Amino acid sequence: MSITYKGISISSLGDLETLNLIDFTEPELKEGEVLIKMECSTINPVDLLIAYGQFGPPVQPSILGLEGSGTVVKSGGGAHADSLLNKRVAVMHKGTWNEYMVAPAHSVYAIRDSISFEKAASLIVNPFTVGAIVEKIHEGNHKAIVMNAAASGLGKIMIRWGHKFGVDIVCLVRRQEQVDTLASLGAKYIINTSTENWKNDAKNICSELKVKIGFDCISGTATNDMIDLLEIGGIVYIYGTMANQPFTFNAAFLMLQLKRVEGLAMPIWLYQKDHEAREKISQFVQDNFEEVFRTEYASEVNLTGLKSALLAYQKSATNNKILVRIHTD
Question: 4, 38, 121, 212: which could form a disulfide with 234 (CB 3.0–4.6 Å)?
Fold first, then answer.
């Protein structure tokens, strides 16, 4: 007998007012798919991109939510899918803001008993993105990096990772309160980009540390600012588009200073890994979860309050990590 369940759908991409809690009927599972009873999810910047039709195919109406946790209650068959049956899991796939969701088994990761559903709701998107960033750092044997939006949840993970593994991080933020927050976490190099001489200060630090790699999740004019900070031959990886603007840069940086700009999309990076490699990433995250990869939530909502929470989140995402409780029974 199929399950009827509730979930969030948006009928007109780009208009958050068309978010609604509606009824769904369980679809038939294909081989390699699992059905997950969802317990918790969260709100990430990418969820806004999906809601605005700027990430993935612009399907209308569209289910939402990209990350969450729950229990696998049914398998469509196949060795990997069957191995997840009755397991507590974290998942990264569209539709986590539903009471039940169907996901391909390769997007699902078994979680340890020591990691709660609440914690596991944020086990993939930011931690695995950090994994992609760390891989680039290791490839170039870099000892120092620069990153913007450093007061974000991902930025805080990077700061903790830098402390543990000995990499200096030049943190770019936009407000004094964010400077104070990062200082309380032990960040050593913090630049407030709203101050008058911030770029000179940042250049001096980056020159002292010989920074040749940067990570930009804002794009727009921030990309050019970051390129300017790097040593000759440096590279900026764009892994987010918070500014929602085309990135701009001075072509002379590329022509005469041999600098580069590349994209870094964690889902694509992860898709290119085989099953064994993805499992190693998951185990590394879980091994270091409390010390490095944990996420603190500012508030929590259930499905009925998610629309209001998302409207508020689009105005201020920093220090506003929201836990979404799916099943409250």
Answer: 212
Angle between helices 125-139 and 153-165 (to 10 degrees): 40
pLDDT digits (tens, 9 = 90+) for 178-192: 999 999 999 999 999
Residue among 226, 235, 267 nearest 131 (CA): 267
Residue 283 — φ and ψ, nearest 5°?
A: -65, -35
295 vs 156: CA distance, rounded Å: 9
Counting beta carbons within 10 angstroms of the beta carbon of residue 93, is it exposed (0 to 12), middle (13 to 18) or buried (19 or more)?
A: buried
Q: Burial, 203: exposed, middle or buried (Cβ in 10 Å; 0-12, 13-18, 19+)?
A: middle
CB 195 within 8 A of CB 173: no
82 HSE (CA, 13 A, CB side): 4
pTM > 0.85: yes
State the amino acid at position 124 in one-letter form. I
CA distance 55 to 255: 31
Altogether, the residues listed in the chain come to a count of: 329
273-292 tens-digit pLDDT: 999 999 999 999 999 999 99
**Domain spanning 126-267, CATH class:** alpha beta
Residue spans in the chain of domains classed CATH 3.40.50.720 = 126-267
Among 153, 198, 156, which residue's Cα sits nearest to residue 174? Answer: 198
Cis peptide before 61 (omega within 30 of 0): yes
Give the three-state DSSP class for 73.
strand
For CATH 3.90.180.10, list the domain ranges present in the chain: 4-122+295-325
* Distance, CA of 247 to CA of 203 (rounded, Å): 20
Q: What is the DSSP letter of 98?
A: B
